[in-house]
Structures are given as C-alpha cells and as structure tokens.
Amino acid sequence: MKxxxxxxxxxxxxxxxxxxxxxxxGVDKVIDLNKIPYPFKTNEFDFILMRNxxxxxxxxKSKLIEIHRISKPGARILIRTPHFSSCNVWGDIEHxxxxxxxxxxxxxxxxxxxPVTIKITFSHVKFFMRPFVKLxxxxxxxxxxxIFSAVDLVTELRVKK
Length: 161
Known about the structure:
CATH topology: Rossmann fold
C-alpha cells in the first residue's frame, strides 16, 4: 500500500511519503502544494492523509481534483480541517477558509469522491454537543455553531474512478 502524508509539517509518519513545502527533518519531498500538477504519477497512491493543510491552499477544489488524479481507484483520502466555527480557522494568518459539513458532499466533487464519513469534532468541554451534531449537523451549523463552536471537520473520502 502506497501512502502519502501531504502537508505533513513536523508530523512525520513511518511508511508514508512525507511531503511539505518546508524541509523539516523527516520530510521526504518538498513541494509547493499550490502549484499543480503535483510531481506524482496518475493512480499512484492508495491512501492520502491531509491533516490541517487544505485550509492553507488556494482553490481547494482544484487541489482535490489533483488528489483524485494521483489516487488509485477506491483510494481513501483522510482530511482534517478546522471547522468554520472554530477559533483555529481564523487564528492562523495563513488560513484562507473554513469548511463545513456540506463541503465534501458538494455536487462539484460528486464525480470524484464518495464521502465515507464526515465528523464535526468538539473540545472536551463541549462534549455534550457530539450526539446532537451527529444527528443534525446542518441544524447545528445554521443555528448553534457560533454559540457552541466546533474544533475540526474530519472527513474520509473514497476515490471514484
């Protein structure tokens, strides 16, 4: 199984190709992820981890389509981004946007990916929101997100080819 840790920063993973735009210790390949195409073959990866990277990139849709290109059919993509209500999304000057429950289920991505799971995470202080949000994510985002802010959006996608 060929695995890619895209935008790894200092989170170096064993048995992964670790990629970032800065040459931290353990980074295998330095790439500007805003410039596509990425220097990988079509259908190269079985699993791609994108932890706290998508919010840093210009035009995330084009980057996801490039991720689709380098992924094998049926590959899994695991994405963690700050939820739009999180103070983390706007606390980092390099963040360009937040994401919500509908982002990765949008019709513009339907030809490329099937959402497997989409989970809104909360801090331990707001743990009581977890069961409600699991059942009613859209209601939460429209009416409660700025009262009981979330932390992250964790999404697993399966590549359609």
